[in-house]
Design brief:
Blueprint: H1 2-7, H2 14-41, H3 58-64, H4 67-98, H5 105-113, H6 120-130, H7 137-143, H8 160-185, H9 189-197, H10 202-213, H11 215-230, H12 234-239, H13 251-261, H14 265-296
Helix pairs in contact: 2-14, 3-14, 4-8, 4-11, 5-8, 6-8, 8-11, 11-14, 13-14
């Protein structure tokens, strides 16, 4: 009986599985339960307090008819696409640089990863000061002799998103670099030797051999970065507060304002549910590629 239990995969690492039960139950109750509760109440007319007075899709119709929400979605799409492409591209190039076994690699890696240890609030405030035209980088450039230089990334509605993008790249690129470097260090050395014997240039080895082999690393990085983009909030609040006007509004700010300032829980829940949908759009393809492909293999 005992031997049969040991052979049964269900009883393997039983102690660890029992220790994980509280965490699993907490996740189910808090996260799954809270998610279902939010979606259900998004179909109600809840104001200051939640109440089960059904209004169907009225909250969603109002949501997609609000110009502020549409601006927030547009901003998130622009910021998200640029952030995804640039963060992963720059992070990979930095990882390739470190993979050359350069001197002071540990120091360089620490410097690049340090911004990730800061909160987005701190990052937003730091870059708010750095980009200030009166005493930041633009004023330094003027003091160096370029009197006609004008750049106000945080107060020009047309380019304010790029000011946010600079701060986001500064904080997130080092983290992506470390993930990519771990993937590169996991490549078998025999592959590099075979490519050198065949006379394949190093850049072609990276582009046509290494990058396809690192597909799981790229997919995981894509999911991590995209999830962070969807919930973008504190960086915007610290750097621009959504301004000038609504030029840097993002969906998370819309949710917060309607739930805690406008006291319209139903509208906030509807916006939260749409953010959940955007997260699922990212997670479902990742889960299919990771687990579905593995199952077929």
């Amino acid at each position: 009986m005992a031997d049969g239990a040991r052979r049964n995969p269900l009883f393997r690492n039983l102690t660890a599985k029992l220790a994980a039960v509280p965490m699993v139950l907490t996740a189910l109750v808090v996260f799954a339960g809270g998610t279902v509760w939010t979606v259900v109440y998004s179909f109600t007319s809840s104001k200051l307090l939640p109440k089960l007075k059904w209004v169907g899709l009225d909250q969603y119709e109002r949501l997609w008819g609000a110009s502020r929400w549409l601006v927030a979605i547009e901003n998130l799409l622009i910021y998200g696409v640029l952030s995804l492409v640039l963060t992963i591209s720059i992070g990979f190039m930095l990882a390739v640089l470190l993979d050359q076994k350069i001197r002071f690699e540990d120091t360089f890696r620490t410097i690049m990863l340090y911004p990730f240890a800061l909160s987005f609030i701190v990052t937003g405030l730091v870059w708010q000061w750095l980009l200030n035209p009166e005493f930041g980088v633009p004023s330094v450039i003027k003091a160096m002799g370029w009197e006609s230089f004008e750049l106000d990334l945080l107060h020009d509605p047309k380019i304010v998103l790029y000011g946010l993008l600079v701060a986001g790249l500064w904080q997130g690129t080092g983290f992506v670099m470390c993930i990519m470097l771990a993937g590169l260090r996991g490549i078998d050395e025999d592959i590099w030797k075979a490519c050198r014997v065949d006379g394949i240039p190093r850049w072609k080895t990276y582009l046509f051999v290494i990058v396809p082999m690192m597909r799981p690393v790229f997919i995981t990085t894509l999911v991590i970065v995209a999830s962070g983009i969807v919930k973008l909030y504190d960086l915007v609040v610290a750097q621009t507060s959504g301004g000038p006007g609504n030029a840097s509004q993002v969906p998370a700010m819309y949710v917060y304002d309607y739930m805690f300032q406008a006291q319209n829980l139903g509208q906030g829940f509807a916006a939260s549910s749409m953010m959940l949908v955007s997260v699922l759009i990212v997670l479902i393809p990742w889960a299919y590629l990771e687990f579905g492909g593995r199952k077929r293999g």
